[in-house]
Amino acid sequence: MYSGINIEKALKLGWPLVDVRSPGEFSQGHIPGAVNIPLFSDEERAAIGKVYKQQSEEKAIELGYRFVNPKLNDFITVSRELAPDGKLIVHCWRGGMRSNSFAGHLSDNGFADVKVINGGYKSYRHFISEYLASEFDIRLLGGYTGSGKTYILHKLEKLGHQVIDLEGLAHHKGSAFGAIGQQEQPTTEQFGNLLYESVSKLNPAKPIWIEDENINIGRVEIPESFFAGMQASRLYFIDIPKEERAKHLVSEYTNCDVQLLKDSVSRISKRLGGQNAKMATELLEAEKYYEVALITLSYYDKAYLKVKYTHEDKDVVHIPLERVEHFENALKIEKYL
After folding, report:
1. With 0-12 CB in 10 A as exposed, 13-18 as middle and 19+ as buried, what is 110?
2. Which of 295, 294, 256 lies closest to 278 in space, CA to CA?
3. What is the C-alpha separation between 315 and 219, in angstroms, rounded?
4. Residues belonging to the active site
5. pLDDT score recorded for residue 315
6. Sign of the CA dihedral 225, 27, 124, 17?
7. Which of 300, 302, 141, 140 has its CA nearest to residue 231?
């Protein structure tokens, strides 16, 4: 048998989740943990859409069956491996023909209990959008580039605080150098899905520590409603001497191909100024990384000051620190709570 289920209950149920949309739809964004068992390939889906527009719905359905019929046994095999007890959840884009056909096929072939998400993936996106617009007790950790803010967040988490690592979810450290050593970034849509998954695991009644970010982290964008909540939150601004931060940047970024560093300098050359960019490139070739770090920090510190001043009419706690020592700095930040 199969039956409908709303998205909130489906997420709480925790059963294996099958996304029957095409691979292209799935890669654009999907519920974390879902397994893609597509009814149609991207090419097949496009062909069905073309027939629907140019001929009729009936002809499109006929073509769909021709594409699907050879795959029916595989659908059962793969689904059985995923859910040996015969209990799973299925969804497509809107909870329509694709998911119901798939669920009915499994039900007809011995699956004990198959649920179809009402409204499909679209209902999930609407649900998480409303959830991320909720009020959370956010504590922003700010500070100039090279302060080790992400590492401090991880130390705070080990000390028992609730933390969300936005840069970790985005696979980017936020600056022109931020993609170095990182995996490919998710889409903005998938980033929102991953953010919801992280936030939903936390206790909303307790503070949540997040690094102060621009709305864009590399190519992904923080959901506007959640970002608005961040901007309205208390900012804990750590102030570490530039020289100490430059040392940290050297340890952070010099274990890679120097060409990656040159490319990153090139991306901000206009903001650095032509002469500074040229000097930084020459210093990279001479492996004088500390001097390069100081040049880039002259730009990033000015850029961050503009962001910091947007908080000046709000609640800002200034925390002077001497060195980039992540655990020690986490303990000092705790004293300001």
Report:
1. exposed
2. 295
3. 29
4. 92
5. 83
6. negative
7. 140
